[in-house]
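Reviewer comment 2.1 asked that we show a complete input and output for one of the modelled complexes. We chose the iron/sulfur cluster case, as it is the one discussed in the main text.
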Amino acid sequence: MGVKNPWEPVQSISNTQTPRRRELPVQHGKTGQFGILTTRVSKVIDWGRSSSLWPVSFGLACCAIEMMSASADRFDISRFGAEVFRASPRQADLMIVAGRCSTKMAPVLRQIYDQMPDPKWVIAMGACASCGGVFNNYAIVQGVDKIVPVDVFIPGCPPTPDMLLFGLNELQRKIREGIPNPPDPLKASGLKLVGPIGEEL
Ligand code: SF4
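Response of the prediction step:
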């Protein structure tokens, strides 16, 4: 009979702690042997992409304040892996259109979208970005889905930071389920955006 270790802990969990399952999730429930976990490479890639969305810094109006708030400590967008706001569209895969988009800004928005590498996604945050909001006039684009393919619309004026987080969760779900982007509105319509001095973009 071996010598018993006198320092061996008599209890490995505290009385206030919920006991955790000891076996790993891939262990067989009855035999305790390690099993085989099968998946598809595309599923792992989609999971990785959905958990590390990098938004491009693109605030247009009052909704942008709520977007900034979502990235601050109280709401903490980094819990969902999306806190890396990039100043360059070349390093971003998510565009959060936060605020109303003026007709003059539309070509700029589209150009930034075009500069983002594929795959990429768009969230229209707020009533203005989704449908023009209260600004039913010639100066405001009546929904940015007329110039970029929008994956998720978030209603509200302004939507609260937790509504943005909910929209982000919905986008993550779409990515994990492999739901493709909607059709590109410019390609579908055959229309072209021109710049402020009439140049073709
Ligand atoms: S939806 Fe409301 S809060 Fe957002 S940009 Fe429009 S007016 Fe401002």
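Strands lie at 55-56, 94-98, 121-125, 152-154. We note this here for comparison with the apo prediction described in Section 3.2.
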